[in-house]
């Protein structure tokens, strides 16, 4: 999140730039935001200062922020909308500005809560994109066949089988150590978001693939990472994502097929098979049921397609 240059050198005064830098440090140290999220926040704030520079006709100072009204913030959003910015980005911009002004008010630098009255546009959630059961099966086989070495083939098939068979996030799967797999063949203890732990049952077919890979593991000591790269370290998520891209192109699958798509497929296929929503919520580690309910929309869509193709009254007039 640190910058080699000051992106506000033209649009903000020196004092204003110093306050922005203090906010950046706050995000990094107290809020503990990731570097990527921090950069996104900084980009949003830069867009706001670019707008203010044009809107006010001079470098933005602290006094300018004190005098901003709700109409100024709405003008900024209109300016962003004219740039064809997506709703999700607009919503993030509002969130960024609220965070920034809260920080300035907490520090006693600026007292202006006009931004708090601005409501961002509701962001409609997109439906997850699961693989079909047949595509998932073929993907797992290709993962083994297309790997550079035999042991990497066993590793990749075991990883994707675990994502699909247990509904894990990629970060959860890659954080596992050898002892997590060997201590109990039937259950995994998964540490998810917010360090919340959950128990995930391991199907025999999944456990079989994990053991096959374990037999080819370069360093199968208990405290070693389970999924390792060619150098013996814990495999990087970027390597996994790259391998998924190679396989999906070979299969002619859309860009929506990512490591996370296996988690979507797990949830969707469970619900289509009669699994109840609460159980799927627990297995996925969702904090609220609303996050899991997205998958019911997919299963409803699936049922409608089956009806449309199979029911004798579907095309009756």
Care to describe what's here?
With 317 residues, this protein is mainly alpha-helical. It has 2 domains: 14-117, Tyrosine recombinase, N-terminal domain (DNA polymerase, domain 1); 133-310, hpI Integrase, Chain A (Orthogonal Bundle). Helices cover 59% and strands 3% of the residues. It is built from 14 helices and 2 strands; from the N terminus they run H-H-H-H-H-H-H-H-H-E-E-H-H-H-H-H. Strands 1-2 form a two-stranded antiparallel ribbon. Strand 1 (187-191) and strand 2 (197-201) form a beta hairpin. The longest helix is centred in the N-terminal third of the chain and has 22 residues, at 35-56. The radius of gyration is 25 Å and the shape is elongated. The N and C termini lie far apart (61 Å). Mean pLDDT is 84; it is low at 1-5.
What is the secondary structure topology, with strand pairs?
Blueprint: H1 14-29, H2 35-56, H3 62-66, H4 70-82, H5 87-106, H6 133-145, H7 150-166, H8 170-174, H9 178-182, E1 187-191, E2 197-201, H10 204-214, H11 237-251, H12 259-272, H13 277-284, H14 289-310
Antiparallel strand pairs: 1-2
Helix pairs in contact: 2-5, 6-7, 7-10, 7-12, 12-14, 13-14
Number of helices: 14
N-to-C series of helices and strands:
HHHHHHHHHEEHHHHH
Task: Give the amount of beta strand, in percent.
Answer: under 5%
Give the end-to-end Cα distance, rounded to a whole number of Å.
61 Å
CATH domain fold name of the largest domain: hpI Integrase, Chain A
**Biggest sheet architecture:** 2 strands, antiparallel
Radius of gyration: 25 Å
- Arithmetic mean of pLDDT: 84
Report low-confidence residues grouped into runs of 5 or more. 1-5
CATH architecture of the largest domain: Orthogonal Bundle
User: Structural class of the helices, strands and pairings?
Assistant: mainly alpha
Strand order of the largest sheet: 1-2
**How many structurally independent domains?**
2
Shape category: elongated
- Helix content estimate: 55-70%
Which CATH class of the largest domain?
Mainly Alpha
CATH homologous superfamily of the largest domain - what is it?
Intergrase catalytic core
Write down how many β-strands occur, each being a DSSP E stretch of 2 or more residues.
Answer: 2
